[in-house]
Amino acid sequence: MSYSIKYLENISATVNIPPDKSISHRALILASIAEGKTLIKNLLDCDDTRATLDCLRRLGVKITKKGKDALVQGCGKFFPKPKNEPLKLKANESGTTMRVLSGLLSTQKFSVEFEGKARLNQRPMARIIEPLRKMGANIEGRFYQPTRLGAEPEICPPLLIAPADQGIKGIDYGLPVSSAQVKSAIILAALYAEEKTIIREPHLSRDHTERMLKSFKVKIEVKEKEIVCYPAKKLESPGSLEVPADFSSAAFFIVLGLILKNSQITIKNVNLNPTRCGLLKVLKRMGANIQEERLSAEAYGNELCGDLKVKSSALTAATVGPQDIPSMIDEIPILSVAAALAKGNTLISGLDELRVKEADRLESIHSMLRRTGVVTRPVGASGIEIRGGTTLQKAEFDSFNDHRMAMSAIILGSTVGGCRINETKCIDKSFPEFISLINRLP
């Protein structure tokens, strides 16, 4: 079902963004293996977090939903109902559910068949399988041949995870690619290892797992791009955790406030973790008028939070390199929208990871922008140049069944008028309220 995109200008609004998806996943998982009850306040309810919730319940965890909150009865380790065959878990289309939870499942005393749906069954899993096997895990996937020209076969879901024959041991591991999901899978396995584990990153990636583990009294040391995780005899529940608003969801309204004429948007209580909000730094380099008001991090699992006030801005082009990408990997589609409305040519490189998201986001960005008349060109195998300042033309967009591409197209189309997008159900993956929030803007 197509959606007619609303033309917007002269906006003055305050918006409340849904809870953080990455933090919601981790709060559910860590509360499940802690001792005692944990009240998770303001838990995100979307397709991806429901996948994690369902997996944990199948693993024997008692979780009670109360409105926007969830009460989790921690059980130390998982105790699913006994079966003669592997326990079947379904991550649906949630890469975080599958990758992060697999690290924990590798330490358990039962077998699991971990399934995905749609695009997740084509997403690479060797990146978690390799380090987990080095730790002694018994985990394997299936070979899948991507259709992209020249692409190598990938190991993809479903994953088969059996008990580790010799237990889990600590390792010293250098991540080939900065990835918070892969790093978190290793950290969760390391909690049950025989000795400490050291993880080294090429660039800083999101550190939500590291921050939240401290709330559960786990000994973990972070020294720039090196993480040292020590075995944990038990995790102690902090009693309660509150999930702040999701920066990746806020990013759409940040860019909207910047590119609309005569507009100002205030976004409340947003997660401002420095490893997460690299988009803010890039937008400010482009001349964005964004004011931050910091709030206390204490209640939010050691996460920095704040209110953002965004005003219409005359943006100029920027150069974004591989060192910038890990802290804004999910925001590249909406950054491309800002670049299209900026003066000059924006160059973004180091985008290999965009090819293995819900869609090939690099190709999707080219398609989205070109439909409005924006000139783009590939730069090498994983870069893009966006020529800004073009007078945009109305267009019909393809969502590519990708929530972030769909929302980015709606933001872009709102500056043009007369635009449509072919399908928006995919937005429920992370931000079910997105269209209703857009429709309520005056």
Verbal overview:
This protein folds into two domains: 213 residues, Enolpyruvate transferase domain (UDP-n-acetylglucosamine1-carboxyvinyl-transferase, Chain, Alpha-beta prism), CATH 3.65.10.10; 155 residues, UDP-n-acetylglucosamine1-carboxyvinyl-transferase, Chain, CATH 3.65.10.10. Helix content is 28%, strand content 26%. Strands 3, 4, 5, 14 and 15 form a five-stranded mixed sheet that branches. A four-stranded mixed sheet has the order 2-16-18-17, with helices on one face. The two termini are 24 Å apart.
In summary, what is this structure?
By secondary structure, the chain is α/β, with parallel strands linked by helices. Helix content is 28%, strand content 26%. Strands 3, 4, 5, 14 and 15 form a five-stranded mixed sheet that branches.
Unreliable segments of 5+ consecutive residues: none
Helices, by number, come to 12
Major sheet? 5 strands, mixed
Structural class: alpha/beta
Q: How helix-rich are the residues, as a percent range? A: 25-40%
Beta-strand proportion: 25-35%
Which features characterize this protein?
five-stranded mixed β-sheet, alpha/beta, UDP-n-acetylglucosamine1-carboxyvinyl-transferase, Chain, 2 domains, 442 residues, single chain, four-stranded mixed β-sheet, 12 helices
